[in-house]
Structure formats: C-alpha cells, structure tokens
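Sanity check

After download, print the first record. It should look like this:
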Amino acid sequence: MFKVRTLNNISVKGLERLPRERYEVASDFTNPDAILLRSFDMHAMEIPPGLKAVGRAGAGVNNIPVERLSALGIPVFNAPGANANAVKELVIAGMLIAARNLCPAWDYARQLAGSDEAIHREVEAGKKQFAGFELPGRVLGVIGLGAIGVQVANAARALGMRVIGYDPRITVERAWQLSSDVEQATTVAEVLTRADFVTFHVPLVEATRHMISRERLRDMREGVVILNFARPGIVDEAAVLEAIEAGRVHAYVCDFPDSHLQGRPGVIALPHLGASTAEAEDNCAVMVAEQLRDYLENGNIANAVNFPQVVLPRQGAARLAVVNANRPDMVGQISHDLGRGGLNIVHMLNESKGELAYTLVDVESGIDDEVVETIRRIDGVLNVRVI
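Expected structure tokens:
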C-alpha cells in the first residue's frame, strides 16, 4: 500500500486515479511514499525519509526544492500543458482588455450616478476617451512555443492577427501543432521590434530574466502591449512603468500584482488566475497522479523536471530502479553486481539528464536484499528500489 501525502487540496478527479486498494491519501502522513501539492512552499520543509517522488499539480516548480530532492534521488513530476487552454484564454482576454481599454472604461461606468438620462449623457460624453483598437492585422510576438505558447499563437491567428514566434528549443511535437502561418524569429530582439503585442511563455531562469529591459523597450513599437502570464522577473517592471508614463507602452497586463504596480495607469494586474479554472485543476491533478502512479508501480518516468524520461514495458520477474550520478561505468557496475548475484538481465534502459542518470533493469528472477545493498554501496548511487 502506497501512502500519498497532500500538501494542498487536490482535485478529486486526480485522486480518483490512485485506486484505494493500492493507495492511501491523507494530509497528515509523516513518512509518505509520495507528496502531491500545488502551491505549498516546500523549501523550509524537512524531506521525509523514504520519500520516493513529488508531484506538482501544475507546471511551475519554484515552490519545490528540486536540487535538494535531486541529491536524494527523488524525481519531481509536474503537469506541463495541462493548464495550457486556461492560460491561453487569459492571454487572449488580456489582449482584448488592453486593446479596448475595458478596465478604465468599466471603472468609469461604475462611477456614473443620477437618473438614466444623466447617465446616458455622461456615457456619450465620456466614451471617446476609451476608444480602442481591433486585433486583426496586429502583430503578436510569442516568446516560448511550448504547450501554452503554441495554443496562444494558434488562437491569435484564428483572430486574424499576424504572429511571430521565437523558441530555439521548440520540440518536434510542438512544431507539428503550430500553425504554418506563424512566422519564425531567430532572436528575441526580432520579435520585440516587430510586435504590437508581446507575450511570454518561458520559465524564469537567468537567461530569461528581464527579457523586457530599458534597452529593449527603446527599440519596441510605440503603443505596444506587454503580457506576462509566465513568471515575475521576466519583465523589468520598473522600466515598463517608465515607458507607460512616457507613452511608449500602451499597457502592461500581468498575473502577478505587487506594491509597485498597484493603482498605476496602464497596468492590469490579475491575481494569478492563469490556471485558476476547474478544468485546469482537474487536468493537472489527473496528469500528475497518473505519472506518480506509473513511477511508484513501474518505475517509469514522464514529465519529471529533474529526471530523464524513461518508459520501459515490464518484462521478467522483477524490476530494479537505480538513480545515480551521471558518471562513466555506472551501468557497468550495476550490471556486474547483478551478475554476481546470479541475476540474468532481460531488459535494461538507461538515460541521463544533467548530473543525474536513471536505470531500469528487468531480471528473470527475484532480487534479494543483499544484491540491492551491494548496488546501493556503489559510489555515486543515490537511490535503489525494487519494484
């Protein structure tokens, strides 16, 4: 029986993917086999002994101590793309809100008072200050063409916009999904200089920090709308506020309010609504629960941010899963110890990602504890599990 600890409320549809005859799920386990969470901050948390996996019912893992877990040989699963439609819809909404000046217009209408006749007079007198512009023919720059970026690009094309995309690491799968009408840019600068709207769908790493900076703002089109539904820090907000005041940026739409943005004209800051739909929460929970289950029961890995993808159909009588430092001759040592233990290998798969490597081995007969301990003592082995 596997024990799964939840650190946040997880969608019932996701938890239903963990059958009760094999899984216990509760929020108070002290030594769980796996942890399921959404936004809970694990950085100050002590890692329970015996923990085998962590599953984030969402895409970002900034709230999870990935490096610390990697050093213990523990994979961190997420749900990339499960919330893509929800974020796509919010990006499209952000473009429409900014283009039609809907927030200040709504605020103006809310303040109207008096008789119907008086309100109608004020509406006719005041509506001109909120005149906007339409999306067809405008250029949208999409930086990051993963699951979300591709959906945003395709939706914008369907609305009649021209779309320029930039992603030097676009996968073959995403390239197939992308509309053939989306133009390819070779640099971030090329996107920014041509776009009327620009939206970011990239993780926050050193290379993506302040992709919108004072220097780049000088080269962007006057009246540009900047949308950030990715992560705080990708946009230099102080520089954007200066550009709004100078009239060079029409609006900044983001999902991350802070004290500097509050009440600033031209800023539309939403309360982190990107994945806040019932459908997205269900999709994320289902996806990560299925990944956790496949790992716990079969050792297979899909969508782990710190481990390579390893999927091996089961053969033989037993399976061994080994996590180790990515060094030469690790597979050789593991195979040697299995052979010394009289175990014949039926099938083996080894993959690496960065400093970690992961090996699944199916053998013809059961694996005794002595063989496991011998492999565990190999220098560089971080975790060993018999499945």
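If your output differs, re-run the checksum step. Summary of this record's structure: Residues 41 and 63 are 5 Å apart (CA to CA).
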